Amino acid sequence: MKSRNNKRLAFAAILVLMVILAGCSPSTDDEASIEEAVTSDREEVAMEAPDADEPDRDQSDMETLDPDEADLEEPVSVEPAEEAPGADEPALTTPETPVEPAPVPEPSPAPTPEPEPEPQVALSGSLVNGVREIQVLSSQFDFIPGDIVVRQGEEVRLLLTTADVAHGIGLSQFGINARIPAGETTVVTFTAHTVGEFTIVCTVPCGPGHGSMTGQLVVI
């Protein structure tokens, strides 16, 4: 408010100064107008100026305030946000159910191959005091029996006879070469130590079929 009054007074003073600088004396009307404007401004200033006896309201209010309240603003209290119920409680966890591993089937043992059954081959002759004794008949041009079957490791005794002419028996793998005279019995003994099939031959010429007269010894 005081600033506005000061501006009006300054404006009036400038207006008077301009008239003086212009070198012309103001007319009676102009002087009346200027004096009226100045008087009006003074009255407004007097009306708007506060009473000297009345203390400034703002100053009075400031003086009545507590020094601590004038310097410090009332702190704003901030209430902590309410925590959700159960916030401090530990979260409940559902225990995991242990998953049992799937049983691994144990590998089944490989089947043990069963030994092949021995061929049911009828052995020749018979055992006499632990010796396999076999009767063998020779004739033109065969050995009867044609196949002699014995077991490995057995001691073998051949009782050889002839039905016609003299013949012979040869079994080189076992060191056998014997003559079978007509009408007599020839005994040949050996041990069947080797497994296999061996050819028996006639070692005495006995006719046109002599070369085809053969037999077989089978050791199992």
Provide a descriptive summary of the structure in words.
The protein has 220 residues and is α+β, with helices and mostly antiparallel strands. Helices cover 25% and strands 25% of the residues. Strands 1, 2, 3, 5 and 8 form a five-stranded mixed β-sheet that branches. The chain is rod-shaped. It starts with a helix and ends with a strand. The model has no long low-confidence stretch (mean pLDDT 77).
How large is the share of residues in beta strands? 25-35%
The count of β-strands is 10
Shape: rod-shaped
Low-confidence stretches: none
Helix and strand sequence: HHHHEEEEEEEEEE
Structural class: alpha+beta
Mean pLDDT: 77
Radius of gyration: 78 Å
User: What percent of the residues sit in helical stretches (DSSP H or I)?
Assistant: 10-25%
What is the helix tally? 4
> How would you sum up the major sheet?
5 strands, mixed
Distance between the termini: 147 Å
